[in-house]
Amino acid sequence: MMKRLFIGLLILLAAECFSEGLQLPTVFSDHMVLQRDQSVPVWGSGTPGEKITVEFAGQSKTAVVDSSNHWKIMLDPVPASSEPRKLAVSGSGEAVSFSDVLVGDVWLCSGQSNMEWSMDRTENAQESIDAADYPLIRLYDTPRRVAGEPAGRIDAAWTRCSSERVSTFSGVAYYFGRKLHQDLDVPVGLWLSAYGGTKIEAWTPPCGLKSVELLADTVNLPPLSGEDKEDRHIPTVLYNGMLHDNVPFAIRGAIWYQGESNHTEGSLYVERSRALINGWRELWGRDFPFYFVQIAPYQYKEEDARILPVFWEAQAEVARTIPNTGMAVISEYTTLDNIHPVNKEVPGERLALLAEAGTYGMDVEFSGPVFQGLEKSDGTLTVAFDFADGLTTRNGKMPNWFEIAGDDGAFYLAQAEIKGNCVVLHSPRVPHPQAVRFAWHKRAVPNLINAAGLPAVSFRSQ
């Protein structure tokens, strides 16, 4: 009898060690938003051979746990709905359910400190927080965590947007989600995963790094150990710790605000962005939209004034060359002595404009004037712009921050005059101008805008 009891106890202990039972990632919780109009993956762990059933919105789908303890089920697409529903998951003698589940649009909101920056530290904070009663907006805030290998469960859960909850949530993400919710009239889920002072490569999964030849070798950096285990700059460590376990929770797209920690890298940032976007899109299995903020003008102490414009140029190149991306420019809402502009409503809403135009097909103005071409004539340069209807200046003065150069490459400030969708430039110091650059200085806050009030993008013609 004792022998049988002992054997039974061993079997129970072995089973407990072999499987922790039915579990799902924490991105599945009460109050979550499931992505509308897409097949929605639901996955988790269980006991090998166990039959798992997922029920939602009249659907009942089954799968069997594989030998690695994993299972995955794809729910059929469901239209947007603000009706609170239940998602039920059951196995052999175990069951979990999630209540108050909505169907709408889910956006991943990621990056460094300017994305992480909380509502209670933003401009007009208390007024905005007091008005943040939006129960159909849901918030998921990922704890900051570094991991040398893909890490397990993330300690977070979805909550309803309220004054209490939003005060410590990302200002940029909140304002982005608020505008989409108001303009689209659907539930919005904001999945925040941001960490201040971090480099883009830390957020990039291995498959993304491998997709870009220039960066492929960085996948093989040694694992974290000892003093290095808290280094937020090592490739993949924030993907491992703050994204991996919740991928591929269904999303409509991603917004991104990062760059200060990479801003000295110039054109290399194009390849780093390509790696991040390639990697995320591969893991999600679709080329979802990716919208980002161009970092603001900033003093950067004694740093050469031209380093930051070269980085802006790289960010613009990302938007120009990588499909289904877009860049929000916030140059006029800077704080030159503070790397964290306190106005987060402007970047959040400009990201939303990009989404409304590019993802939802709405007829909205989403870009400021963008350099289109250059015409040279005797003594003048005529700069043509796209997105330049109603070209004007913010303060009614002559357009500023234009410089022109002759064959010697020496740039001088230019006199500028708006003519239609163009700006005509000349300078007595440059009798035969050949090149132009605009806002080519780390402290440049140019006044050129279009009729929608959106600022012109910095550029150089050569």
TrEMBL record:
<dbReference type="GO" id="GO:0001681">
    <property type="term" value="F:sialate O-acetylesterase activity"/>
</dbReference>
<dbReference type="Pfam" id="PF03629">
    <property type="entry name" value="SASA"/>
</dbReference>
<dbReference type="GO" id="GO:0005975">
    <property type="term" value="P:carbohydrate metabolic process"/>
</dbReference>
<feature type="signal peptide">
    <location>
        <begin position="1"/>
        <end position="19"/>
    </location>
</feature>
<protein>
    <submittedName>
        <fullName>Sialate O-acetylesterase</fullName>
    </submittedName>
</protein>
<keyword id="KW-0378">Hydrolase</keyword>
<dbReference type="InterPro" id="IPR005181">
    <property type="entry name" value="SASA"/>
</dbReference>
<dbReference type="InterPro" id="IPR036514">
    <property type="entry name" value="SGNH_hydro_sf"/>
</dbReference>
<dbReference type="InterPro" id="IPR039329">
    <property type="entry name" value="SIAE"/>
</dbReference>
<feature type="domain" description="Sialate O-acetylesterase">
    <location>
        <begin position="104"/>
        <end position="328"/>
    </location>
</feature>
<keyword id="KW-0732">Signal</keyword>
